[in-house]
């Protein structure tokens, strides 16, 4: 497993809610390459809850959408925008001490310029809590570079 560097971290004004590590209000996700998968290990903070002691479903959706985007960037070497997300919330994610979630995404298939990414969230016990099939409209790499600051990933040492 190899840790990916965030290629946008040095862009002025970069404040991604999901992956900007310096955004104090964000999720501060970090990503790893694990074979064909992109993986994130993430601990929820209390201010991301909905019902008392429960991780908000919108936060779960954001976690899954973000890792899906990183799968597109890493696997297809381009940028994309989300066009559809079919989500299933299967088990409550409890906000308990030591609750480290594993978010895992993988390219399922390509349909012309639509990438279909499968994503799961499992809890600290390895139980499946949420899953999504996410459809991304991909851009030619030249457009990704010009409009979306696309850069290929580097790895942390």
Question: Summed up, what is this model?
Answer:
By secondary structure, the protein is of the alpha+beta class. It has two helices and seven strands, in the order βββαββββα. 25% of the residues are buried.
Break the fold down into its secondary structure elements and pairings:
Elements: E1 2-3, E2 32-34, E3 37-42, H1 57-76, E4 80-89, E5 101-111, E6 114-122, E7 128-138, H2 141-148
Antiparallel strand pairs: 1-2, 2-3, 3-5, 4-7, 5-6, 6-7
Polypeptide structure, described:
- The structure is a single chain.
- This protein has 157 residues and is α+β, with helices and mostly antiparallel strands.
- The protein has a single domain, classed as Hotdog Thioesterase (Thiol Ester Dehydrase, Chain A, Roll), CATH 3.10.129.
- 18% of the residues lie in helices and 33% in strands.
- Strands 1-2-3-5-6-7-4 form a seven-stranded antiparallel sheet, with helices on one face.
- It is globular, with a radius of gyration of 15 Å.
- The mean pLDDT is 94.
List keywords for this structure.
7-stranded antiparallel β-sheet, Thiol Ester Dehydrase, Chain A, 157 residues, globular, single chain, alpha+beta, 7 strands
Q: Name the structural class.
A: alpha+beta
Q: What does the radius of gyration come to?
A: 15 Å
Strand order of the largest sheet: 1-2-3-5-6-7-4
Number of separate strands: 7
Tell me the strand percentage band: 25-35%
Superfamily (CATH H level) name: Hotdog Thioesterase
Distance between the termini: 12 Å
CATH topology type: Thiol Ester Dehydrase, Chain A
Main sheet specs:
7 strands, antiparallel
Count of helices? 2
């Amino acid at each position: 497993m190899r840790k990916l560097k965030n290629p946008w971290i040095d862009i002025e004004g970069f404040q991604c809610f999901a992956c900007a590590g310096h955004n104090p209000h964000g999720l501060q996700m970090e990503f790893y390459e694990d074979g064909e998968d992109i993986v994130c290990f993430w601990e929820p903070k209390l201010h991301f809850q909905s019902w008392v002691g429960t991780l908000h479903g919108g936060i779960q959706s954001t976690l899954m959408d973000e890792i899906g985007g990183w799968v597109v960037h890493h696997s297809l070497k381009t940028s994309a925008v989300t066009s559809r997300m079919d989500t299933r919330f299967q088990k409550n994610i409890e906000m308990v001490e030591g609750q480290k979630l594993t978010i895992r995404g993988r390219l399922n298939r390509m349909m012309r310029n639509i990438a279909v990414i499968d994503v799961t969230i499992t809890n600290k016990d390895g139980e499946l809590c949420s899953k999504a099939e996410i459809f991304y409209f991909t851009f030619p790499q030249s457009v990704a570079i010009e409009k979306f600051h696309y850069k290929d990933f580097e790895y942390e040492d």
